[in-house]
Amino acid sequence: MFRGNRPIMCPPAPQHTYIDQYPDKSENHVRSLSDSMASNIQADNITKQENYEAEVVVYRALEKLDEKIIVLHSFKCSFYQFKMCSFNFDPANISVRNSCECDFLVIGGNYYVVIEVKNSTLNGNLKTAFKKSIDQRNRIKMLIEGINQGADIFLFTAFPSLSKRSIELTKELDDAERVSVICKEQLDDFENFKKWWTANVTKNLRQNESHNPSLQLLHERSQHILITIFCTEVDVPDVSSLSFSKIVLKIDTKIKTGQITLEQKLKLGKSQTTQSINSDVVSAPDMVRDFVGVRYLTAEQNKVFTSKQKLLLIIGPAGSGKTVLLAGKMLHMIKAEPDKKVFVFKFSRGDANCTVYQDACIRAGLKFKQLSIESDKTGNITFKLFPENESILSKHLATNILKFQCSVIIVQLNDNAFKPDYDLPSESVFLNLLEESSVNVIIDDFHYNTADKIFGTLDMLLNYAHNNFVLMACDLPQFAACSLHIPFGTNLPYFRNYPSLSPDNCAILSKNLRNTRDISDVLSVIRSPFIEYAAAQGAISNVNLVEILLPVQTSGHFIRGPLTNFHIFTTFKVAEIHDLVNYEIVNIYKYDDLDKRHVAIVYRDPDDVENILFDVNHDRVTLCAVDESYSSEWPVVIVLFQASSSREMFIPAQLYLAVSRARVKCTVFLYPKIGLSLSDFNCFSSLLGKLEPIAHVFQH
Fold it and tell me: 646-679 as b/e, with b when 16 or more CB fall inside 10 Å?
C-alpha cells in the first residue's frame, strides 16, 4: 500500500503548544506596549514561539523518514504513571517525584528514540540547556526500561538553530556529549537527516534480536502502554489525540474563529483582562467577534476595517480575510446608517461564502433578502428571490428592492451569469439601479471581464462613491484562474484604470489566515511564478503596481497542520491514480467525524470525474471543478490536476486556486494529459524543487 514505511505521526499534525505570530526580530517587538512587565511577557512569549517552531523542524524531519516508526510528539507522563511503570522507582529519590516529559518519543521495532529539542543561542546557556535535556531524556529512559527492560534506547538532543561548527567553537560540550547532539545541518536538509538517522540509530540496532518472538511480544505490549500514557490527559485514555478527523476539526476551528494568537491574562489595576499582547495582532471589534465569529485581526486587517474611505478596493491573496472584513464593514455601515440598505454582490459557486453574510445578519438580528441572477446568450436577465423562489424582471428590480423590508440584500452572481461570451446589454446592469436606490455597495470576489457591464467602469463607481460606500475585493491570480478564455492583461478593465484611485482607496492584505501555515507556505511558492509571469508579460502596464495588485503572500499565524502531499506522475496512469485517490479517501473517512461538508475533490478536467472518480461515493465527498471553486473552501481537499497544453502560463494560477481551497489538509495529484509528459511543462521544473522542503513530494 501507499503508506509503505512512512512514520505514523501522533498527533497527525504538530501539537499546538503555541500558535502566536510575531513580527520580525528587526522590528521593535514592544512598540505598542508601555509598561516593562508587558514587554517582558512578550519577550518570553516570543521565546516560547521560537521553541515551538524548533520542535516543528524536528517533527517534519521525522515525518519524512522512510521508516516503520511511531512518533509521539510532546510525550508526557504523570508521577503516578511513572510510579506504576518504573521498576527502579525510589520514592526517596527527589528527582523522580515529578512527572516526566520529552519532545519526541519514537517507537521503532524493539527500539526507542528519545529526542529533546532546545532552541538555544550561543550566549553561554548551551551547557545549561544540554544538561536540562539530559535530565529529561534519562527520566523517559527510566520509564521505558521499567516497561521493556533490555530494549535499545537512543537519547539525543536537537539544536535546530545551531550549526555543528558553532557548537564545537563554544567548547561548552565535550566530544562524548556532542555525539548525542542533532545539529542545524542535519535538520535543514532531509538527505543529511536520513544519513544521520542511519549512522546513529539504524546501524546501532541489535539486529540478531529483532525477530525474537518473545521480544516482539514484549515490545508490542510496551508500545500499547506508551501510547495509552500519551493519550491520557487525566485518568481516562482519549484516543482522539491520534484521530486524523478530530485533529482536522480542531485545527479548522482555530482557523475559522481567528484564534491566531495565544490569549494572555494581564492584570490592569485591580481588574484582569484577557487579550493578545502581540503588537501585530489585535482583538477584533465587538461586531466582528460577536456577529462574524472571528476573535482576532492582524494589524493590516484592522487598518482596513477602520478605514473611513467611501470607495475602497481590497486586494489580497486567498484566505487573507477579505470576506470577513467586508462582512464586518457591512454591519458597521448598517449601524452608522440604519435606514440605508447594503447591497452585497457575491461572485460565488452555489451558496459558497454567501453564508458568511447570511450568518452575520442572523447573529446581528438583521433582516436580509437574497437574490440569484441568471442570464442567457441573448442578454435576458432574470432575478430570483430566495427562499421565495420568485422571479423578478430587470426593469422591476429597483421598485421591488425599495419595497423590501430589510437592511441587507445579498446578490449571488452564479457561474452561469454574465459569461464574457454572452451578448449582454452594453449599459451597466446595476448602475442605474444603484443610483435610484441610493444604497451602499459591497462587491466581493469579482472574477469575470463583464464586471464593467455589471457595475460600470471604475470611474463610474468612483462617482457613485461620492455619496455612498463602495467596497470591492479581489485576488488577481484567482481572477485569472477563472478567466482562461480571456488573454491575461486584457481582462482587467478595473485595474487598467487603477491610477484613478488614490493610495487611500486601496488596501493591501498580504497575510494568509484561512489555511494552516504549512498550506500557506505551499501557496506562497505556487503564487510566485504567476506574479513573475504577469510582471514579465507586462500584463500590468505600470511595473510599480505589480506589488500592489499582485501582493506576495505570507502566513499570518503559526497554526500547523498535516503536510501537503504532492503525487507527481510523469505520464497519465489512470489506474494508479484511481487507487491512490481511493486510498486517500479511505484514510480520511476512518472515523465518522467528517462528511461532504468537510471534504472535497477539486478537479481540472471534467473527464477525470468519469475516469478516476467513477466509484467515489458522491454522498460523502463534494466534487467541484477548479474554475468553479473560487469562494469555496473545505477543511480537507483532494486536487486532481491534469496539466494540458492549453494556456500553460495559467497553470500556476489554477493550481494556486485549487490548493487554496483547503484549510487544513490538501493532497494533490499532478499528472499530464494523455499523450503528454509532465516534462513538457516548463512551469513545473522549478516549482517542484521549491515544494520538496515544505511538502511531501512523491514521484510515481
Answer: eeebbbbbbbbbbbbbbbbbbbbbbbbbeebebe
In this structure, what are the phi and psi dihedrals at residue 618, rounded to the nearest 5 degrees?
Answer: -70, -15
Give the distance between the most distant pair of CA atoms in the chain.
90
Which is higher by pLDDT, 653 or 302?
Answer: 302
Q: What is the pLDDT of residues 366-406, one digit of tens each?
A: 999 888 776 655 556 667 777 666 776 666 666 677 678 88
Grid cell of 172 as nine digits: 561548552
pLDDT band for position 483 (cuts 50, 70, 90): low
Cβ-contact 448, 418 below 8 angstroms: yes
User: Amino acid letter at 309?
Assistant: Q
111-117: strand order across its sheet = 8-10, 70-77, 100-107, 111-117, 152-158, 181-182
Cell numbers representing residue 448 in the block: 469575470
pLDDT at position 237: 64
DSSP assignments along 451-512, one per residue: HHHHH--HHHHHHHTTTS-EEEEE-HHHHHHT-TTS-TTTS-HHHHTGGGS-GGGEEE--EE
The predicted model scores a pTM of 0.84
Alpha helix (H) residue ranges in 486-616:
493-496, 517-536, 546-549, 574-588, 607-611
Instruction: Point out the least confidently predicted range of 182-196, 354-368, 392-406, 636-650.
Output: 392-406
Q: What are phi and psi of 177, to 5 degrees?
A: -75, -35
Burial of 332 (0-12, 13-18, 19+ CB in 10 A): middle
3-class SS of residue 429: coil
